[in-house]
Amino acid sequence: MKVFGVISIISLILISMYLFNAIKGLRKIPYLSKVAKGVSHGPLISVIIAAKDEEESIEKTLTHLYEQNYKNLEIIVVNDRSDDETGKIIEQFKERISNDGNVSYQTVHIQELPKDWLGKNHALYQGYLVSKGEYLVFTDADIVFKKETISKTMDYVVANHVEHMAMIPYIICNNFALRSFIHLFLLYFCIFVEPWKVYVRGKKGKGVGVGAFNLIKRDVYMQLGTHRTFPLHPIDDIELGKKAKEMQCNQHFLIGKELIEVEWYPSLKDAIKGFEKNFFGALDYKFWKVIGFTFLQCLFAIYPFIGLLFNDWMLIVHILSLTLLCLLYVSCIRKVSFGSTLEFLLLPITVSCYIYTLFRSAYLTLRRGGINWRGTFYSLKELKELNAK
Q1: Where residue 226 sits, what CATH number does that domain have?
Q2: Residues spanned by the domain of 280
């Protein structure tokens, strides 16, 4: 029992540290909807969208962008070897708005993927090559933008001399199981990525990127070497943020849950399948990190629940641990999302689901010798070699 007692104390200390850090840090992150009034004109901004087989969502995304209150806007959509109607839809959209000169609109069609490139990274880079904006926004083909999103963004960017800005969207979840899975991801994002540290200068600072909305000043993007510096990185958004931070540029992270939203996955099954592609990559394809992260998850979010079975002083410790863990969960989720946080009660099950997904991601990657990403296979050897450069 002494061993369990030590583990119980360690778990309590760990949760307490995460809670203290999160409460202190989350206060530093502003809501864009509250800190910016919006402007109608300003520097030219190029919104670059990478689209592969996005026929179900691309038109809606383009329509929302085209209806922005901010008019000095350039929309560039890159059709990355789509096998569906994506290419046709983006060209039809061009015809539809051809007589309106308020917003510039360009399309790029990629037929072949060059060697040593991940599809999305290459598509975003090709979009940059034809862009003209002083600021670039790299985004996805399924994002819903409110009319004032770009207007408020540019108001904030100009006023604060922002050189890189990541903004987290509201992630739509259509059922309880999916919400449990996504909200755990958001919890991990808060406590492990610590996005508030973008505001910290020096070695203690951290770079953060978000695929839904990654804004960067053009000259900064060129100085860091563009996407050519991480052509095969599966988490390109985070990597862009890290590269920008290394340059000590003026980096910001904001909450955009009232201005942008995305339905990341339609179901829990799809979410698990999606995470399988890059979960192992997020840990640099190192199995010892898989073991370490699994142990940390168990200590942090499973063991406190198991401790309720004890009947001595450890029961009090675990009740305190769960109380603090609940406070941590609610604090993080309410900051970045909407809705109920009752799924906290399923945390041990959801964490177990994450552990399964992580090990499956590692197993499939190692067994195949690489990853299948949107119809293209990338060997583990080339992923490691190019991303290590």
Answers
A1: 3.90.550.10
A2: 269-387
Place 1 in a pLDDT band, splitting at 50, 70 and 90: low
pLDDT digits (tens, 9 = 90+) for 74-100: 999 999 999 999 999 999 998 888 766
Q: What is the pLDDT of residue 102?
A: 67
- Do 77 and 132 fall into the same domain? yes
Domain boundary among 243, 266, 289: 266
Shared-domain flag, residues 92 and 219: yes
3-class SS letters over the chain: CHHHHHHHHHHHHHHHHHHHHHHHHHCCCCEHHHHCCCCCCCCCEEEEEEECCCCCCHHHHHHHHHCCCCCCEEEEEEEECCCCCHHHHHHHHHHHCCCCCCCEEEEEEECCCCCCCCHHHHHHHHHHHHCCCCEEEEEECCEEECCCHHHHHHHHHHHHCCCEEEEECEECCCCHHHHHHHHHHHHHHHHHHCHHHHHCCCCCCCCCCCCCCEEEEHHHHHHCCHHHHCCCCCCHHHHHHHHHHHCCCCEEEEECCCCEEECCCCCHHHHHHHHHHHHHHHCCCCHHHHHHHHHHHHHHHHHHHHHHHCCCHHHHHHHHHHHHHHHHHHHHHHHHCCCCCHHHHHHHHHHHHHHHHHHHHHHHHHHHCEEEECCEEEEHHHHHHHHCC
| pTM reported for the whole predicted model | 0.91
Is 154 a residue whose pLDDT tops 60?
yes
